[in-house]
Amino acid sequence: MTGRHSPARRRTLIRTGIATAAALAVAGGAIPFLLQGAQADPTPLTIPVPDRFAPLKNTVHDAGASGFLTREEQEGDAYNTGFGPMSGYRWIPQSGEPQAVGSDPADSGVRVDGSASDVVALYTKASRTVELKDLKAGTSTTFTLPDGHIYLGATGGAVLTATSKDTGDIEALHVLRKPDGGELTDTTVTGAVPASAWAVGADGHTIALRTPVTGGQQITLVDLEAGRAALAFPAAWASAQLQVVLSDKYVGWYDSENGDDKVHLLRRDTLDGAETTVAVAGSSEYPANVAVLGDYVLATTGYSPQQPSDEYQLRRGGELRALPIGGGDAKTLLPHAALSMAAAPDGGVLVTGGADAGHWAVRKATVDADGLIGLSTLRELPARAGQLRELALSAGVLATTEWDTNSYPSVFKRTLDLGDSPSAGDRSVLQEPAATDNASDVRRYAGTLPVGTGDGRFAYKDTYAYSTSKTHLEVRSSAQDSLSLPLPTTDAGGLPTTYGSKVLSASGRYVVFGQGTGPNDHQYVADMAAAGGPKIISERVGGGSAVWGTRLWTVGDTDGTIKAVDLKSKETADTIDIGCTPTRLQAVGRWVAWDCASGSGLYDRTTKQKAGLPAAGELGDGYLLSLDKDAGKVRLTDFHTGTVGDTRDLADLPGATGKITADRFGGGVAWLDTATGVVHAQSTGLPTSPLARIEAHPDTSVNLKSTTDARWDGSWQLSKPAASGAQVVIKDRAGRTVRTLNATTRGAALTAAWDGKVSDTRYATDGTYTWTLTAAPKDGQGAALQLIGSITLTGGARGHHDLNGGAGDLMTLSSSGYLTTHYGDGKGAFGSKASGSGWPAGTYAVPFGDLTGDRCNDLLVRMPDGILRRYTGKCAGGGYSPSGSYKALGTGWQQYNVLTAPGDITGDGRTDLIARQASTGDIYLYADNGSGGFKSRVKIRSAWTTYTHITGVGDLNGDGFGDLLARHSDGTLFRYDGTGAGQFKDRVIVFTSWGKTYNAMVGVGDITGDGKGDLVVRDTSGNLYRNDGKGNGSFTSRTQIATGWQVYKGLF
């Protein structure tokens, strides 16, 4: 649907005329630099009016061979119902222009009759005249009823009347005819003339009469051509609201009030025959309308059974169904149909219906010789424009409160792009009443004024009329993204609460709401992201309030002042003397605006200067949007440079009910013409402030084994929307990137989440990480924003050689059989320790990675008999004893004189095992099989007999794969880098002439706390040294960290 109103844009400039504005100066001289590059001449966007939910109201009264008689809804709002007034009767011919039948609007003193005929009768009660209009022939004839005749009805050019006895009963029925130019004829009806009668149905040659009798209604058929009455139903248990349906084959009655929800049918050729019934889905609350089409009953029900019945918006009706008279499955012909149908002379039935208001039409149902039903469109009915009541623009998202575009008043939203080629995205529901809501509450969003929070959500008070407990403060962007704070309308003692119904301001997690801004009005601040759920964090009384980021601006402690309080620290951050008590405060970035009884003003937090404003309005970033209702103008005042400048007209907005909104989190404005429902929006064309963080809530720690929150989340409320492509880069302590996250845009906010994994299958190791958020401004104005923070991660994988969490560890075996774990202190040495006794001589320990998937590093021990055992790792630390729980992984392992864990060299994220065969020096890979053991060995090197020491060291060079160190007998230390494909690259020299006195060498992982793997060696005198890893595959010179370690038979 196209827009119905496009006011011409004006470029007129208006001087503010306020001396204080012209006098605004920057302390110290120059005004701060502000971004350039804004649009010079913004292109306006016109947003079409949504269709009204309820289709165009239409009733079909008669269907002839050449057209049909109808009444249709007109423009306007009749009696504040949301529907326009109905037109008078109009004849819609198959070709040609519609023709008025009678007066327009319809005269309540004139009755219009016609059924299955091109002839319509107009009976004027006051004058007792009948006009017969042949709408096909274009002729008419008028006559006055004979004395004593009472008008009952008319069809097919014949008029049925009655004369009465002195008792009041019917003496006789008469059929009157008056051909064009001919004389009036009177035929007395013979047969079963009833005692009293009201017409309740007709076709082109028959009128059905009802007569109240004991137990219901008697139904009589009067054949106007034969002039004979016949009794059809002696006593239908029906009320005066019964419907009588006629076709060439059937006559039937139906009553949703007192009937049995069935259509009762007789064949017209055997009125004394057996009755057939057809059940329809109607009731007294949801009535049905019925007709007969061939051997089917057509039925449509009224209002949806899930909704209160008195709501006009729902009157697009239920399904139009065809119910076989002889039994069988019903067929749905239309999803919705109005409660009026008219039989046509050829046996077809006219009905109004369709899928929705945009696909509504008068249609004709027919049945062919094979019994197949078809529908054809006779007249398309245009949708009516909906009514919009309120609007709010926030971070490029437009919310509109709409009276009648949904089944009940609802709030909708859509995303706007106000760049060089403005556009509006798809419209979706922000909030609507539930189908089961009480009838008194389904209209509660009719006057809702949503207030944008800047993060894609809107805040509003959800007030229930007759519930003291259901009312709440709602912040939502959709049904799946909503937060609620209960605000009961009465307290525990039954007294009214002071929560009020107005949302005054909102920014991110904070919402200011209350009774208003009067001197005695209570105001509250809600933190919708508080720990444990939304809660009220402050209360005050009187004056304006506004929130931006974490700062709450309120009336100050001294008369004529305002102040800013930090909502997190509770400290007063600023106090400004404005010389009056504000009834409204607004805050956007560097700007604070106020409205007082004496006028409006502005404070620039950057320049520390104040200025007057020409009018009250909506504050934006560097401008004020105002509505002059007397002049019918939308106006923009520019002060982005720090000086209040000219005011210019943006648009005409006639009438006193227009609405305006300024996007506090962007450079857009919008206005609503409530008379037409058209919304206009555009960029201001002014430079915007740089992209900035105004509030943030990134987690500082995460436990990946938490049962309630095993994910790191970050959220950042920004001053305006960021461009797509914003990223969060996670780095470890060594500065290596372990994960790059794509941030999700939510209005002018960004969110990101990290599951703690560094690949699809591998968790990050415990420790400290940094995150860096980089985001560019969506409007292209200003530099990219970069924010940095840190994360302490626990519950992840353990680092190389880390057996208890925190740092690398070292194991020793004493001659007395104690296997001891020396825990790294993170400062380059070893502190506490844990031991287990009873280990026999020849025990060979291999601190390993996580074989069992519990994110704790396990311990491999080769026993002297060659059995390899796996001891489940102890995440919290503790000693290991031979009798502890273990699983044997095989025998024959005594053939190896080196067993070591280099880390992951196969690229699957799991630690692998390297073994050197004593007899040949060949090197074998035992890859983790993912089931707690190893795959079959693979030979990867031959004859490594010249190496005196071989040790796995984890990832030394930062490529993500495990590495190996090997000391040659000539004193050269080599590094073999893992390939990620189960092999090592060619060796690289690390040191030469190195380690002549060393008898032990262990890659202990990171024991210094810098995230880089370190090396520990012992010399023949028992001195223990540390070589710090550089992160590039090499080490620093050695540092002595302990003495006396010659007592240990083995270091692992």
From TrEMBL:
UniProt cross-references to InterPro entries, sorted A to Z: FG-GAP (IPR013517), FlgD/Vpr_Ig-like (IPR025965), Haem_d1_sf (IPR011048), Integrin_alpha_N (IPR028994), Quino_amine_DH_bsu (IPR011044), TAT_signal (IPR006311)
Keywords of the record: Cell projection, Cilium, Flagellum, Signal
| Domain named FlgD/Vpr Ig-like: residues | 710-776
SUPFAM superfamilies annotated for this entry?
C-terminal (heme d1) domain of cytochrome cd1-nitrite reductase, Integrin alpha N-terminal domain, YVTN repeat-like/Quinoprotein amine dehydrogenase
**A Pfam family the protein falls into:** FlgD_ig
PROSITE patterns (alphabetical)? TAT
What is the protein named? Flagellar basal body rod modification protein
Q: Which organism is it from?
A: Streptomyces jeddahensis
